[in-house]
Amino acid sequence: MRLATRAKGPPDGQLILVSADGSRALPATGIAATLQYALEEWDGVEADLRRLDARLAAGEGEVLNATDLLAPLPRAWQWLDGSAFPTHGELMQQAFGLPAIETDRPLMYQGMSHRFLSGHEDVPLPDEADGIDFEGEFGVITDFVPMGTCAADALKHVRLVILINDWSLRAIAPVEMKTGFGWVQAKPACSVAPFAVTPDALGDAWADGRIHLPLAVTLNGAWFGHPHGREMEVGFHDLIAHAARTRDLVAGTIIGSGTISNADHATVGSACISERRAIETIAQGKPATAFMRFGDRVRIHAPANGGSPFGVIDQRVVSGRSA
Amino acid sequence: MRLATRAKGPPDGQLILVSADGSRALPATGIAATLQYALEEWDGVEADLRRLDARLAAGEGEVLNATDLLAPLPRAWQWLDGSAFPTHGELMQQAFGLPAIETDRPLMYQGMSHRFLSGHEDVPLPDEADGIDFEGEFGVITDFVPMGTCAADALKHVRLVILINDWSLRAIAPVEMKTGFGWVQAKPACSVAPFAVTPDALGDAWADGRIHLPLAVTLNGAWFGHPHGREMEVGFHDLIAHAARTRDLVAGTIIGSGTISNADHATVGSACISERRAIETIAQGKPATAFMRFGDRVRIHAPANGGSPFGVIDQRVVSGRSA
């Protein structure tokens, strides 16, 4: 199943189901008004949602208007982002002479969750001098996860998989990181691709708590990278168990993988500018690629079997205040 | 005005107004069903709420049953906690040989906000070995704050002042802090005293974006500290402006002061065990005070003119899972 949220009734929109080819949709009217409700009541609504999905598979549905779509969860009660691709951290440490992070646990911070941007709207940011960067990553959305859930039991709480652009402001990030308090200013609202996909619909691409798909990232129309999701050092089940060690996770919690990064970065490129700048610094002593300017456009999706299961993030950064 | 939330209709409860002496209440029926709604529509509902408050002042209202009260916001879209009392950081660094935090900005992290405990319910935590500690602090709740709001304009967005116990797990906190990612496991759900107070109702105790009141903290019935809120290095207006630098703040954002701590700690004591242990370590080479055990009870309030404007946090930690 592929779930999406149509702008209708702010701020949480209307839950719809989308056909496998992304062309048609049926609203989940009478089953679940919003995706948040569906996640809270998943066991009670899943069978009805799957019946609706069967009608889509049989050819029913209206033509999907992609410009109507919001982020699948336009706001969420909790967003916990990991950093599970070790190559990314290693490159950043090597390039900038940072000490290795001393921990034997998954890395994770709590981020802003009261607003997630759609994959197509303009992204208003205050200042180019902040070092505007994207981060392409996968995420999962859980149902309610009780405190103390172990990794072995965690995967059954993964209800949906999503594709995220975790906007990052690189001039601020290291300053905030040095305090030990994590990021506030360096991490404004994320963007999310339009379709939230059930793990079963990903087939073999969902295995070991990882998404075995590459990204396809372009910046202003030029190839930027196609790193692959399989190289997570820990899987989403480990990230969920880590998050739930001392708290219940509310239904609708979003857990992120951190920016996707591969050991073979010389071939596959990167999913964020900062990492490319680190590679350039290691090779040439200084970065060559600039951060984003207002008007620049980034496109991120995860191609699979000729399709795009999560849909596409394709948006500009602009100067200004958000609505 | 003093606002509170009565358990009625989960999870956000019912908004009530409470008399100045805390003895009587009137529900805000027909004005705002929940505190979150009131914060989103403050300009539209404030006059009606003040008319209701005048009826309370005239003697109307039912007897308040304190055991019915939830946290004023039982859940919030955003909780950003500062660390604005410099004595606390200095003591911790001196006792544990930590480097000083290199920053010229307010310290702030984003914490768990999908659940705030009431001031009287048991606090379920998984393990005494995690180093269970309280942190008494003040907080403010804002209405919508546009991105880029400066400190000079920020105070008008403070709609309510609250008293918080920011539960902290001290065996985990330094491990997470070293990663630079902030705290996830070390910061489970906070507790909040029952009454959220409008700044005007605090009189002279609300000045310079600070709360000029002491806490009164007891642990298992014994005096623990009475540090004063006036020693914030930056005020709540500075914390709000810091938080809003690259994001809008959603209505109902909670901003915390960080644990209250005074230069004269030898006389006034502390608002958390960890700081007392730091003082003991500096004086005697090792800590003498233990962290909390299951069954231990902490009581925190802010006495003012013989009353207690925020009501009282008085609760036990217990072994187990949250509901």
TrEMBL record, chains A, B:
<feature type="domain" description="Fumarylacetoacetase-like C-terminal">
    <location>
        <begin position="80"/>
        <end position="317"/>
    </location>
</feature>
<feature type="domain" description="Fumarylacetoacetase N-terminal">
    <location>
        <begin position="1"/>
        <end position="75"/>
    </location>
</feature>
<dbReference type="InterPro" id="IPR041072">
    <property type="entry name" value="FAA_hydro_N"/>
</dbReference>
<dbReference type="Pfam" id="PF18288">
    <property type="entry name" value="FAA_hydro_N_2"/>
</dbReference>
<dbReference type="GO" id="GO:0003824">
    <property type="term" value="F:catalytic activity"/>
</dbReference>
<protein>
    <recommendedName>
        <fullName>Fumarylacetoacetate hydrolase</fullName>
    </recommendedName>
</protein>
<dbReference type="InterPro" id="IPR011234">
    <property type="entry name" value="Fumarylacetoacetase-like_C"/>
</dbReference>
<dbReference type="InterPro" id="IPR036663">
    <property type="entry name" value="Fumarylacetoacetase_C_sf"/>
</dbReference>
<dbReference type="Pfam" id="PF01557">
    <property type="entry name" value="FAA_hydrolase"/>
</dbReference>
